[in-house]
Amino acid sequence: MSACYSLKAGSTSILTFLFQLPINREKYPQNQDFHISSRTASMVHSFRDYQNKFRGYFLFTFVRHPFSRLVSFYRDRILHHYMLNNTHPVPGQRDVYINLPTPLEHLHGQKISFRKFIHTVINSDFRNLSTFDHHWVPMWRMCAPCHINYNFFGKVETMMNDFSYLSSRLGLTREFKQGQSLLWQHQSAKSNASSESMIQEYIDQLTHEESSQLYKMYQLDFELYDYHFKNFR
């Protein structure tokens, strides 16, 4: 079994699921950030590996509404980590995300509105690393669904049901039940950033032209994963 994940599309939950498996529980410390553990050489694989080496493996990935990913990033990394911690820091508690990602550094010291953030996204060039952050790269670019034969596509919007199905299909029902409470940990989950009303609140701050530009940037994600733009125009 192997997974490809896109940041802000259930990556923490996917990694938690994988690292809770008995074989990984014994090999990797459970008190460490699973994102860090996943970057070890034995866990990171190339595009060619997914195409060739993993034949016979059960391959899965999770996706999320493109606008929901952006709202989640804004609320989590900008409003919570950057703006809140720079105005009301917690004494003695270091926040590793207190600095802005490189593409947003020009906004340092400002009150960063969602619209300002989206302007940066719209001006991103996904061929130029300094202009974007991996949290907002289109999901099709991260996991190449047209080139890798995935056995299962889950959605963040139905994550618990999808993980339940995935566990049943893989014979991991007991492990899923044991680790179920750990799967949905992110700040965005607590604030329900995936709800349509939450997304709409933020998309309403954009002009029609801006939301249309944003759609064009993520059009393949909308089409490949059966998400709809018209709901938020």
Automatic annotation (TrEMBL):
Subcellular location, record wording: Golgi apparatus membrane
Keyword flag Coiled coil: no
Keywords linked to the UniProt accession: Carbohydrate metabolism, Glycoprotein, Golgi apparatus, Membrane, Signal-anchor, Transferase, Transmembrane, Transmembrane helix
EC number: 2.8.2.-
Keyword Kinase: no
InterPro entries: Carb_sulfotrans_8-10, Sulfotransferase
Main subcellular location of this protein, as a coarse class: Golgi
Membrane topology per record: Single-pass type II membrane protein
Family: Belongs to the sulfotransferase 2 family.
Descriptive protein name: Carbohydrate sulfotransferase
Species the sequence originates in: Limulus polyphemus (Atlantic horseshoe crab)
Gene this chain is encoded by: LOC111086188
